[in-house]
Specification:
The complex is a heterodimer of chains A (about 375) and B (about 575). With about 375 residues, chain A is of the alpha/beta class. Chain A is built from 13 helices and 11 strands. In chain A, the strands form 3 sheets. Chain A has a 5-stranded mixed sheet, with helices on one face. In chain A, helix 1 packs across helix 9 and helix 3 packs parallel to helix 4. Chain A is globular, with a radius of gyration of 24 Å. By secondary structure, chain B is mainly α. Chain B has a two-stranded antiparallel sheet. The relative contact order of chain B is 0.13. The chains are: A alpha/beta (about 375), B mainly alpha (about 575).
């Protein structure tokens, strides 16, 4: 009996403590949720004063104007807004960052209310101080997964990662088949490709491979010198028409797999091969220019892209999503590479900052590829 | 009686330019001066120009003079430019002679062909020629490989000479228009005399026609050399991918680094500054050629009518030549545009690809962007030629009628923009609008900023044409009008404008067409509010959406062709010689 009472008392105490803990957890959660709601509500309130979201980036990013229209329509529906999207094609990510910085210095509004960048341009933004710090985590609808050695928030809170894409080779799948499909960097030097393959003028992929934790500068410089004599020309990552036309059979290496993800859905004869040497994930970032004319809408737009719906739209529209979300298609590819034991690197401004010779190496590789040095 | 005695002084007073005329002539000079100053200022900077991050340095000059790659770029540009000029003249000269000096049947159609050619952006001529003569996918190469059992295509378009050939085809229409006037005015009596003395057609051409036409051809050649140096689209489409760099594409890469760094406007401006010196040289040479022109004057006075040559059976050969030109420069690119617009991706024409044709390229267009581009393009086409004419008329009047030594400065100032690459002018205008003007005139991001650069860059062409025409109008007519009490403005309107109408129409049409298809300036100055249709096409093409770029080109051509034809019909009535 005594034991029964004692057990009952202990059980009651445990229940009480558990109740207290769960109560405090629930209140904590709802306080956090409340904080989130308040932060979002504040953005929505601000966005209601802003009528238009002006966007300027490469016409292939998020499918340009039509993509922007779809995303803004979904965002309007979700947050009860009536924002009008206005898209104008612009320069590449570095070029747009320079433009926004120049406009900020001249006291002009930014050409684009939202900024999309890559790790290099975010590094540029860090030194130019041209993007607005935003406390991103409280605004996000759901938590992200953790990735060792990778922080999705740009130092100073000036931007947040929103998508990842894997570096590899794009090939014309009508003309490159079976064993001809490359799996290693050395495969590009096969004599049968002499003069028939292309690379990028900015050494996409090779600049990352040249870092010490991957293949190292010496090896990649030597490889690039051989490749430079082997390729027929230089094209940009988005110029897949020059592969489908047969002008070039392969692009070694491409910036990411999004073009091929999209092309394959439309029956375009393109394939994509990730190298066994290592897997590099390029990260895409977003931020709000300090001189944005619609800073609340811009932040809300970025937050929306992190929702389940937003990520799905990005995948449907641009063949991209963010590997730190469980449903991500890019996560599956990255996990598959990890499972094969490949060395994986996630490119970020922090990673670039760590590799101080990255910029100089890229410039050296570019010069080799352009034929400026042999 | 007293009034008559006072007349010479009155005339002298009135022949002095009105303040309005002086102001209109001086305005573009100030803009040109501003651009040149901005260029020199930028050439000494690195970092993001105009921001506190920029630093002053001589490194930009060290880079362009110290880098052997830049020398290679210069060398490529020289070969490309010579090839361009040679091709344009080799095709344009015979066509203009055939049109102006012979009884070629259906010559009205030649004018239409030459004008329509300008509607097709150079991007597509370049792409068309990639399909014709690319070393691997060009059908001409494939055919030659099959016929002669070759391992590789014998023609390589991706060389400075090959690209110059393609650009030369683009400039043939310009060569035609620049030399047509000369053939129209040339007195045929010397040719007839040569014929009577037994010289063959080739002999007459070599010993009489070409020497007589030499100054005009040389002037046209210099004019096209300067265009060749600044050409962007063909070197961008064919050259960039094949690692053949010209000055324009080198400047573009410096101003828009593909992925690894900030725009190097300083290097661009340093190159521009060097090119101003080249421009000075070319302008001086051009001036010398024009001054020596009188030695070759054989045009008679009133009642002069050039006799037209009967071609007989040679008409067929002539038309075959024109048709071949039409096929290579107009029809194939236009067909390629249509093909690319209706196919889902670019691949060599095949039955499979034809079965995939659809309207998807049009459905997927950003129509809001298209309408914005169309609105701005139409606005520019309507305003720029008008302003160009107004300013150029003022400048030309002062150059031709004034006795002041300052007229040489005006002449140089008017020609200088032609020799300055438009990329350089665009960057100069951009920075002036951003950092110098915003508090005075908010031009940044507006269509008027593009309009100003267009006007400045067209003044050289317009003043060349107006100078020649004004020289042919004797000042007695103006003096008579002043005597009759007309103000300088009314004199210009009632006397000069009607007499200059053919030239004014011609300059208007050509300026409108060049504005309509201009790309380089627009690419550098586009923003939300001022994007033009060529810039829309470029941005689609640049991002790999070739079929959408083709769809916009097709729409653009369809929308504006009737307007151009109407313009041309009115203009042609003034321009065509009586047969």
């Amino acid at each position: 009996m005594h034991y029964r009472r004692k057990a009952s008392a202990i059980l009651t105490a445990i229940t009480f403590v558990a109740g207290l803990i769960s109560l405090s957890w629930v209140s904590g959660v709802s306080a956090a949720e409340g904080g989130k709601s308040a932060a979002i509500a504040e953005l929505i309130k601000g966005a209601k004063q802003e009528t238009t979201l002006r966007a300027q980036w490469g016409a292939d990013t998020l499918d340009g104007g039509p993509g922007l229209q779809k995303i803004v329509a979904a965002m309007n529906k979700k947050y009860g807004l009536n924002i009008k999207p206005s898209f104008t094609p612009g320069a590449n990510m570095q070029g747009m960052m320079a433009k926004i910085t120049r406009e900020l210095a001249a006291g002009q509004p930014a050409s684009s209310d939202v900024y999309f960048g890559n790790p290099q341009s975010m590094l540029q933004a860090m030194s130019a101080n041209s993007l607005k710090p935003v406390d991103w985590y409280p605004l996000l609808e759901r938590p992200m997964l953790k990735e060792a050695g990778f922080d999705p928030i740009v130092p100073g809170n000036i931007g947040i990662a929103m998508a990842s894409t894997l570096v590899g080779a794009i090939y014309n799948s009508n003309l490159v088949k079976g064993n001809d499909i490359p799996h290693k960097l050395e495969d590009f030097l096969n004599p049968k490709w002499k003069g028939k393959i292309a690379s990028t003028p900015y050494a996409a992929g090779f600049r990352e491979f040249a870092m010490p934790e991957l293949l190292g500068k010496e090896k990649i410089v030597e490889f690039t010198k051989k490749l430079s004599k082997h390729i027929g020309g230089l094209i940009r990552c988005g110029e897949t028409d020059r592969l489908t036309s047969g002008e070039f059979l392969m692009l070694a290496l491409a910036c990411g797999d999004q073009e091929v993800n999209m092309a394959q859905r439309q029956g375009v004869p393109l394939g994509y091969a990730i190298m066994d040497d290592a897997t590099i994930s390029h990260t895409r970032y977003a931020g709000v220019p300090k001189n944005s004319r619609a800073p609340n809408t811009a932040a809300l737009f970025i937050v929306f892209l992190h929702t389940v719906e937003g990520q799905k739209m990005m995948w449907d529209i641009d063949g991209l999503d963010f590997h730190l979300y469980p449903e991500s298609n890019q996560k599956k590819k990255l996990d598959a590479a990890k499972a094969k034991g490949a060395k994986v690197v996630i490119s970020s401004p922090q990673w670039l900052n760590k590799n101080k010779n990255y910029d100089a190496t890229q410039k050296e590789l570019e010069k080799i590829l352009r034929g400026e040095v042999s | 009686m007293e009034a008559v005695l006072r007349m010479p002084r009155l005339i002298a007073t009135r022949l002095r330019a009105s303040p309005m005329l002086l102001m209109l002539a001086a305005l573009p000079m100030f803009v040109i001066l501003g651009l040149v100053v901005a260029l020199v200022w930028i050439s000494f900077q690195t970092g993001i120009v105009g921001t506190p991050n920029a630093t002053y340095t001589l490194a930009n000059y060290a880079e362009i003079f110290g880098d052997p790659f830049v020398l290679k770029v210069f060398w490529n540009t020289i070969i490309f430019t010579l090839s361009t000029t040679f091709t344009a003249l080799a095709i344009g000269l015979p066509i203009s002679r055939l049109t102006e000096r012979t009884r070629l049947p259906g010559k009205g159609l030649v004018y239409t062909i030459m004008t329509l050619g300008l509607l097709i952006p150079g991007i597509y001529t370049a792409m068309g020629w990639t399909f014709i003569a690319h070393v691997r996918i060009g059908f001409l190469n494939r055919w030659l490989m099959d016929v002669f059992s070759l391992d590789q295509g014998p023609i390589n378009i991706a060389t400075p000479v090959g690209m110059g050939f393609v650009q030369g085809l683009n400039l043939t229409a310009l060569a035609f228009i620049l030399t047509a006037q000369m053939f129209r005015a040339m007195n045929p009596s010397l040719e007839e005399a040569a014929k009577i003395h037994g010289l063959s057609f080739i002999g007459t051409l070599r010993r009489v026609t070409l020497p007589l036409a030499f100054p005009a051809i040389l002037a046209a050649m210099i004019y096209m050399l300067t265009i060749g140096i600044a050409t962007f689209d063909v070197p961008a489409i064919i050259g960039l991918g094949n690692r053949i760099y010209m000055l324009s594409t080198y400047v573009y890469l410096k101003a828009n680094p593909p992925d690894s760094g900030l725009p190097q406007h300083g290097v661009t401006a340093a190159l521009g500054t060097v090119m101003i010196f080249l421009a000075l040289l070319l302008t001086w040479w051009y001036g010398q050629m024009l001054r020596q022109g009188h030695r070759y004057e054989v045009v008679t006075g009133k009642g002069y009518r050039p006799a037209l040559i009967d071609l007989g059976g040679w008409s067929v050969v002539a038309w075959f030549f024109i048709a071949l030109y039409f096929l290579a420069t107009k029809l194939i690119p236009l067909l390629l545009i249509a093909y690319a617009a209706f196919t889902p991706y670019l691949a060599p024409p095949s039955y499979e690809m034809l079965s995939k044709m659809s309207l998807a390229g049009f459905y997927n267009l950003n129509w809001d962007l298209f309408w914005r581009g169309l609105y701005n393009t139409v606005l520019l086409v309507l305003t720029v030629p008008l302003i160009t004419l107004l300013l150029s008329f003022s400048i030309s009047w002062l150059i031709v009628r004034s006795r002041s030594r300052l007229r040489y400065l005006l002449e140089f100032g008017a020609f200088l923009p032609h020799a300055l690459p438009e990329v350089i002018m665009a960057i100069g205008a951009l920075l002036v609008a951003l950092f110098v003007l915003p508090k005075i005139i908010p031009l940044y991001g507006s269509v008027w900023l593009i309009a100003i650069v267009y006007v400045i860059s067209r003044i050289a062409f317009a003043t060349r044409a107006l100078n020649s025409s004004l020289l042919q109008i004797h000042r007695e007519l103006e003096e008579a009008a002043y005597t009759a009490g007309l103000s300088p403005m009314r004199t210009s309107w009632r006397i000069l404008v009607p007499l200059l109408r053919p030239t004014l129409m011609s300059v208007w049409i050509w300026s409108a067409i060049l504005v309509y298809r201009e790309l380089t300036v627009a690419v550098f100055l586009i923003s939300q509010e001022n994007i033009t249709l060529p810039a829309v096409i470029w941005s689609y093409w640049f991002s790999g959406a070739t079929n959408q770029a083709a769809a916009v080109t097709l729409l653009m051509t369809a929308v504006l062709t009737p307007l151009i034809l109407i313009f041309w019909w009115f203009g042609r009535r003034q321009l065509m010689p009586e047969s």
